[in-house]
Batch of 3 targets.
Target 1
Amino acid sequence: MVEAPQTDEGWFALHDFRTVDWDAWRDAPDHERRRAIEEGVAYLDAHEAVEDAEAGASAVFSVLGHKADFVVVHFRPTLDDVSRAERQFERTALAAFTEQPTSYVSVTEVSGYVSDDYFEGNEEDIDTGLLRYIEGKLKPDIPEDTYMSFYPMSKRRGEEHNWYDLSFDERRELMSTHGDTGRQYAGKIKQVIASSVGFDDYEWGVTLFGDDPTDIKDIVYEMRFDEVSSKYGEFGQFYVGRRFPPSDLGAFLAGDGVPTSEFEDESHHGTHAHGEDGHHGGEGQHHGEDGHHHGEGHHHGEDGHHHGEGGDGHHHGDDGGNESADEDIRGQLEDLNIYAGKPHGEDVYATVLYSEADADELFEEVEGLRGNFDHYPTHVKTAVYEANERGRVAVVSIWETASAAETAAGFLSELPGIVERAGEESGFGTMGMFYTVKSEHRGDFVEKFGTVGGLLEEMDGHFDTDLMVNVEDEDDMFIASQWRSQDDAMEFFRSDAFRDTVRWGRDVLADRPRHVFLA
């Protein structure tokens, strides 16, 4: 008898497609259109904030082509939750101008193809990275990517090719090869696969998210050549959409370009709730361990979450997440020609923890943990750094998303001798500047840091500064400083001594300094 793989289910999904009655919309009085927009925005805002349930995620996308005008995607813990989300839309004045040409109901799942131990109850035998991967599959985030593609699919049950006649081992091998193709798009595409067996017309619903629409085309095209698709795949209609924030609903209905903020060079995504634990799960790009992938800085509010882009570090105080302050720091550094954001840096996030343990002992622990982190394609790098002149050791873990870095911090906090996490200090910390130094100039760089360190000790508002060196690569370093305030730090960055150091560094560094976001 052919063995059916075990499955475990997570959140329920609803893809609520809507068409707009454009004739009715054009003919409606202004006050009716205003009311429809106001109630539509309120509905979308409330559901993106997940005010209707204990956990989940929602987002709205414009849809290209004749099949729909927009789609609202909901992930929720229960089927009743998505049912309520669908019906609550019908209570809005906007609903009167729309029809629902189609929809799709499904539930996220993982199957026995992923891990035998998971379904046998041996979770203690599963590494942490795989468990987090499974959690991300069952409780998916809607990433802040630009484009979305949705399609339903089933496995073929024909006379010549019948997926359900294959043995479990044959199916697992085919799925593994199929997964190898998908992993080539890690960091470019995130997918959510949800089962619709017994819920809708096909057996699965697949949602792809990405910033480049050609990546969506390419991954679907390449996967068609895998045997699991070429022989056994059957597909329904495809839908492609462009994400926009609820506040742009009026612009969308007016035929304007959305998101409107894109044309103002601002972030086009709002705040999203991702469940009670605040974790996103998720997938991304693995960049290796070469130490060259570092992003910018970050500004934190009291809640510890990220609030847009920062400059060279992070500010802690009682002003909360002040996006304008982020922009101010970044702008000031850019004016001083020391900002290393895009295209010279990448938007990544770092967790940094300091330990009193011996560096070699700590490295052994980190090396094992790093192997688990590598199961996450959002993992960029995890390394141990040692202070150049005093017994201070830091563990730096860099990820493509703030949520992944936050999750990693939970595991890293269990390492030996952890005493504090960067960003928890009072005042203003510059988590700074990651440097890749030319090997022949390493001694010169360390000597120059000693000179600059002497100047720092004499500056008002400066507490301490360390040059931290990667224990695996002595040419990979970062500088961490602690200041009384942002103004004190900026005073140093404006100084002639710092400008001279920046100019000098162009000859001894293998690349421009990199800033990171602190998660």
Target 2
Amino acid sequence: MSKRFTAGAVATATALALTVTGLTMPAGAAPSSSQTFTVVAEKGISAEAAIAAIRAAGGTVVSRNDSVGTFQVRSDRADFASRAAAADALLGAAQQRAIGQAPKIDRVEQENLLAAARTKGAGSAAPTAATGMDPLDEKLWGLRMIGADRARQTEPGDRGVTVGVLDTGVDASNPDLAANFSWSLSRNFAPDMTDIDGPCEVAGCLDPVGTDDGGHGTHVAGTIGAAANGFGLSGVAPNVTLVELKGGQDSGYFFLNPVVNALTHAADAGLDVVNMSFYVDPWLYNCTANPADSPEAQAEQRVIIEAMTRALNYAHDKGVTLVGALGNNHEDLGKPRTDYSSPDYGADPYARPIDNSSCWDLPAEGPHVIGVSALGPSGKKSDFSNYGLEQISVAAPGGWFRDGYGTSSYRTDANMILSAYPLKVLQEEGSVDARGNVVPSARDFVFKDCTKGGSCGYYTYLQGTSMASPHAAGVASLIVSAFGKTDPVKGGLRLAPDQVEKHLYVTATERACPEPRLQSYANEGRSAEFDALCEGDSTFNGFYGHGIIDAHAAVTTPM
């Protein structure tokens, strides 16, 4: 089945200063030869000149984002991309392909479900939670590692601080998330695509805000700001406002146009923090002129680099603190390996030697992005986590199923990160039955808690840098809560992203490289490809960056 956009795809984008010029393909339309592109105008070119060039190249503008000079375009011409690249007014065109991935079934994030052998029992789950914590908080070792349980006694977060979850959606039916969810600011920029997401659930294929058919975004949102309400579990910043920025497909792919529009909406709406727990594909690395790539692929990647750079700069300049996951490819991002996985959508992958000086892992390596590596309960870098002196900023709890080798906690679910998850997704995975009950085989890793009024929330374990990044985003929102100033125009609290970033680094707990510096994960069953060399000193190194984030120090240390 072909990918398609509908009028609903841009109906919610008016806050972006997007001009919708018309969409003619209804949700039930048959496939056609028409393709969707994101076109980027050259710097300094007016929107009118860009549109004229797009038309001359054979394209029809569907929507436009004047904030960063991007256009969503449909064209029947097989040579549209090359014609757009040749136009003086246009940088080029990227065909509608996935540019970020937080997969629905991820072999890293859900390693516990795929493991051949598991150790039963509580593993590294901590003792009974402190007074004032929620029932499942005793399982959140990550909160204690970063001092978030103590930080909330001083600063639990301010409702006027808004945190965008740029992900697959947010399940606002969970009572822990409903309490902090902003319906007015939330948007869905990613209509369902039947070839990768399955049949559309609603007319127009644009799921309503407050839903998440992928699960990843809900898990991220819970770690950032699940309410401390005596129910379920709580997040790092339990009083901040959560904003859904659905830029990812239900299946876990992220497309250029929705991601750029989500970032500019975050900027224009005055959000304080945006978490980005996804990575760039179809190209694992976007390169300016990789000799292994065709001229068309090179041009597409240059468009992606430019559009993402503009969007990230725009958000930062409008006051958004940007936090991103470093990725789960167990790779030194400053010394990348040959890429055998790209493109991972739309064509067969091939070997691509990667030049570090001209290739970027986006958005983690984009401008102004705070890059976060993942740690297990022991504080050791998770075997899957990317790292490296050039890209890392801080480290945070991301979970590690294989942590605790030689102890009873080895290969236990409790080594991972517990957070909210949609009932629908758990039922699709077979962990919860049709009546909403956790099946016996899943009771070690899926939990259900219900309010006195009968509203129930569901929770499960995942691991990954996708789980580490929201811990850092939560601490960033606490910094804004503690030290931000009232915005006289938009209300709420504001603090310049550079100040937030600096304070996050200054208050992080320094952690020296382990000895030996070349860490092997052979005991955990990993090949030599996972061996990781930690470079740097105790003040800054490739595993921990400036250190392990510290929520308590962040809110109690003066700026």
Target 3
Amino acid sequence: MPLHRHLTKGREIARTAGDHASDMFAPLAVIGRGLRHHADWARTRWQATPQERRGPTLFLTAATLIGIYLLPHGLLFALVALMASSAWTGRPPKAAPAPPAPDVAEIKLSALYSALTPYLCGPEDANPLYHFEGSYKSAFSSWEFDGEGRLSRLELGYPAYFTDTEPAARARIEQVVQGKAGRAREYRFDWDEESNRLRIAAMAPLATDIVAQRFVAAPGEIVLGFTDEDGTARTIPVSQGGTTAQQPPVVWRTGPRSSEPHLLALGVAGYGTSSLLRSLALQALPYADLVVIDGAGTGEHACLVNRPGVHTVETSLHGTLAALEWAARETDRRLAALNAARHAGTAPPEDATRPLWLLLDHPTELSELAHAEGRPDPQDLLELPLRHGRAARVTVVIADDIEARDRLTPTVRATTRARVVLGPAGPEEGHAALGAPLDIVPAAHAPIGRGYARIGNGAPVRLQVPATVDPLDDEAPPQLRDAVIALLPHRDSRTEAAPGTPPRPEHPPTVPADGAPEARPVDLGKTEPMIRSRPIS
């Protein structure tokens, strides 16, 4: 047998013998440890005994031992008692009990109460609800924490003299509560002004894994995104994470019977206003024609170029002015055709009833360029489509930065009553953009496409826009790009040859020598037949 096998077997035998020996001698070790403890105790007591008492102590100890010796079986009983006492004293010590866990409610609610006290304490209040030596139990009536120890629900009272009707005072309290409860979540604040109560609820995060797809909606219904279950009365099936789930949508109804025919989307830079426009374009293409204006000139909508149903995608000021002039004349022509058919009692022509969508991304940048060059403002050319677009089946969608709201014309702000705000906008910005106070405080770090929507006079609701990336963006995930390409009207131009040259206007606008565009009609119509209206499948 090799040497290493002998060594291995010897180690195993030694380990087994050691385990058996430790098991066999464990009682003796316990008794020995107990005897050692008894000896230490006796030594300590002897050293602590004064000199004048040591003699009597020795005499009593000797008398006790003699008495035990003279008793029948005394030595045996004494030995058994000593062994039992040694075994009990020498047993392994118990682990120290863990300190009790701190009360989460006591810590967090006390901190929140102390933070609210400077804002809700009146110096002349004889019986203040909030004071620096008070307890949170006097002001907070109910609270609830989630499994992670975070505040999920809270109801508190506040003094009657607090100015709860002023947005600035409300925002100050909301900011304090969010700072103490956690800025990573959104909170809904329900102010009960009649009973001076404030109810706070942490909002569950919205689903962010819903990609662009065909949504179950009637023609003229556009799914802006998805919201909470209590934000709408319906749900639709969507493909989410490889499975089909029911999600509550935020539906915007367009067309001649819509009370909010136009949409204004404002957002913080980088939070998906261009993605929202792409989502709307993909939903409208099956039954409408598009005119797309890319005012930023970043190529976010280049995937729509030369697609069936897309009249034009313009990025320059000259092309934008020409396209919007044509849209204004087309709106006038549609109105005349619809009125003539209505007076004659005949069916209106198909080219007057097929919806036309004008999608404008960052038009304020083109407005500044037009003012610098002394040309007409593109926003002024939208007045006719905005005011008469509902009757003419013309829908206008404008997306821009929230900081550019003041640069929008009064006509645009007055006629776009369907509003969307994307990104963590402040209370004042959200109120100005939506036209109503926002009772939800946004999180400090919101995902792309997260925001709020308000249709007409309804209450603002949370919104998560479907992930609709630019399919020409190489940095976007391939699955998201393929989802968008599958919704475009023709084949994937990345792997297959593009179709033939699309029809262009027979007489494109020309630029005279002086640089001003010539005032002549621009034909943006297509020589191919109009796409037949069909419902979204």
